[in-house]
């Protein structure tokens, strides 16, 4: 079985730069402000919430890539140095992790540490202990909105343009209907299609996409 081109191209690491904004420009601006050392902190907590596919995990992984630590790491040393933490999907935390997060937030009041967390609901609607939910809602809170199909199509067109090729509407429609719908997977598929087009010397068309998407015997 021939390995698909898609398998050969790892997805790009999540960053703020490759996050497709859509209606989340205010939330992204706030996150950029918190991550920029020169701006200084305006809050100890930044909480992002939204439905699946709205980009929460992308942004958390971008924070981890920027040097933030996951909740599972030690909470810093005795010097009071800043300890920035990123926590994804707080609604999944068990009792022990909820207590650890609550204690961490309390310790942050005496440091310059920042917590960036995500969840599937607004703080008041989280199925967590009430004191922790209240803490998470005490800082900056932003709802993240998933991209519409039109916004995804625009993002795919822009990405294709940046790579120097024309992306036809029927290719976009097929991708949106038959691929994983998160932007990271769609961009990964598009990059694989561009690579396959170059390797085969053929124009990017719907038949080429279908051919690439199917394994073949060698």
Low-confidence stretches: 1-6, 74-81
Major sheet summary line: 5 strands, parallel
State the shape: elongated
> Termini distance?
6 Å
Averaged pLDDT:
85
| Estimated helix fraction | 40-55%
Strand order of the largest sheet: 2-3-4-1-5
Number of helices: 9
Which band does the percent of strand residues land in? 5-15%
Structural class: alpha/beta
Topology, number of strands? 5
Task: Set down the secondary structure blueprint.
Blueprint: H1 5-8, H2 25-35, E1 45-49, H3 56-65, E2 69-70, E3 85-87, H4 95-108, E4 115-119, H5 130-136, E5 140-143, H6 149-163, H7 169-178, H8 183-200, H9 206-213
Parallel strand pairs: 1-4, 1-5, 2-3, 3-4
Short note summarizing the structure:
The protein is an alpha/beta fold.
Keywords:
218 residues; alpha/beta; disordered N terminus
Describe what this molecule looks like in 3D.
This protein is α/β, with parallel strands linked by helices and 218 residues long. It has 9 helices and 5 strands, in the order ααβαββαβαβαααα. It has helices at 5-8, 25-35, 56-65, 95-108, 130-136, 149-163, 169-178, 183-200, 206-213; strands spanning 45-49, 69-70, 85-87, 115-119, 140-143. A 5-stranded parallel β-sheet has the order 2-3-4-1-5, with helices on one face. It is elongated and about 60 Å long.
């Amino acid at each position: 079985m021939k390995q698909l081109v898609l398998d050969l191209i790892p997805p790009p690491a999540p960053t703020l730069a490759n996050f497709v904004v859509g209606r989340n420009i205010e939330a992204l601006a706030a996150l950029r402000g918190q991550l920029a050392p020169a701006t200084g902190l305006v809050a100890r907590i930044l909480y992002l919430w939204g439905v699946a596919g709205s980009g929460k995990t992308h942004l958390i992984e971008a924070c981890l890539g920027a040097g933030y630590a996951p909740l599972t790491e030690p909470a810093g040393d005795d010097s009071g140095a800043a300890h920035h933490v990123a926590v994804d999907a707080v609604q999944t935390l068990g009792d022990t992790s909820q207590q650890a997060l609550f204690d961490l937030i309390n310790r942050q009041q005496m440091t310059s540490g920042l917590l960036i967390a995500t969840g599937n609901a607004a703080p008041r609607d989280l199925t967590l202990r009430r004191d922790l939910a209240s803490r998470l809602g005490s800082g900056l809170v932003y709802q993240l909105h998933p991209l519409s199909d039109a916004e995804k199509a625009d993002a795919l067109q822009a990405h294709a343009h940046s790579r120097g090729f024309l992306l036809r509407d029927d290719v976009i429609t097929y991708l949106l209907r038959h691929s994983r719908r998160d932007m990271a997977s769609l961009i990964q598929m598009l990059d694989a299609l561009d690579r396959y087009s170059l390797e085969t010397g053929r124009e990017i068309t719907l038949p080429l996409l279908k051919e690439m998407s199917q394994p073949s015997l060698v």
